Amino acid sequence: MSNRKWKICVIGGGVVGLASALSIRDLNIGTETVDVTVIAEQFGRDVTSSVAAGLLEPYSVGSPEQLPLIKKWAMSTWDHINRLNCSEEGRKAGTSLSFGYNLLEEPDPDYMVGFREIFFNFQDMSERELAMFPPYRYGYRFTTLMANPARYLPWLTEKLQEKNVTFIKRRVERFEELAEEYDVIVNCTGVGAAKFNDARVQPGRGQVTKVHAQWIKHHVVAEKANGEVSYILPCPDFVALGGVVQKGNWNRDVCPDDKKQIWEGCCQLIPSLRDAKIIEDRVGLRPLRDEVRLESEQITTPIGKKWVVHNYGHGGAGVTLHWGCGKEAAKLVKDCLERVALQSKL
Ligand SMILES: Cc1cc2nc3c(=O)[nH]c(=O)nc-3n(C[C@H](O)[C@H](O)[C@H](O)COP(=O)(O)OP(=O)(O)OC[C@H]3O[C@@H](n4cnc5c(N)ncnc54)[C@H](O)[C@@H]3O)c2cc1C
Which atom of ligand 1 is nearest the CA belonging to 282? Predict the structure, then answer.
């Protein structure tokens, strides 16, 4: 390719957009340089990513057919967070190891199949361990990682700023608005894709209560036979209590009934939580889709054809997959640039 400067725009300031921007900025394309701009309607506390506790564990994501890819992206993300956690930057980036229990009311031999080898020490719980959590009769113990977005998003942002990535706060209505200025557009709009370009995306509304409960050191995720889930996730600076998944619900306000359900469900699992001091309640909209969309598409704009790389629809596992998906998106961007370069020579 020639000695030119490419301009790439990433739409989305959540964990997926920021990780994609970082991988794209680090692309190695010979003598050419890549200018990256992140455009988003919201950044920081206002994005869904900031509501997540950041446990690396797949949840409400992908289809059975997509499992090999989901596993590959999860493994890549795990390795990245593990490296970060073992480095001097772990505290700043909000990473930690998290030992805990996943409980089930009904047996499920396929539970976490495909992911068990990613975690450390994935094992059946013993009868004595299960006795701690009546009425759950089945469960697994394992160690996973956490990247808590309250710290991890600022860490990613700092890395991008060090590499001179530009940030613009703005809503985009159509890809065409960006076609003239940028060579490739990367779509990391999360649940926003539902209103932007893809009717297959819908919100999976979630609500969490953050508490001070520094005596809780292990995570607990409990799934009832009716699909209800309660979880207790110790993060570096607080413990996150959840949860609800309400398909199709766009309401971003805290719901008192959900708060009560979360509180009672978690106190049933660990009764000493009743002594915990509540910090705040948060609501986020998981980008649910039958499959994660990670592919390139050529669109027609008034100034000609343009490549868009889509990277959205990560459901309840955006943190779990963000790094692997960001790297994959960067590869797709590189392919698109090669095609554009070839086209301009013809
Ligand atoms: C309560 C809760 C708990 C969760 N816990 C976990 C967990 O423990 N582990 C895990 O892996 N995942 C978890 N998740 C899921 C995870 O939060 C999401 O999968 C992830 O945040 C998706 O990231 P994203 O970057 O795609 O989307 P978002 O964080 O929603 O970011 C989307 C970005 O796109 C921008 N945008 C959208 N549309 C437009 C537009 N038209 N113009 C300009 N900008 C636009 C937005 O402003 C935003 O900046 C949880 C989610 C919830 C709600």
Answer: 1
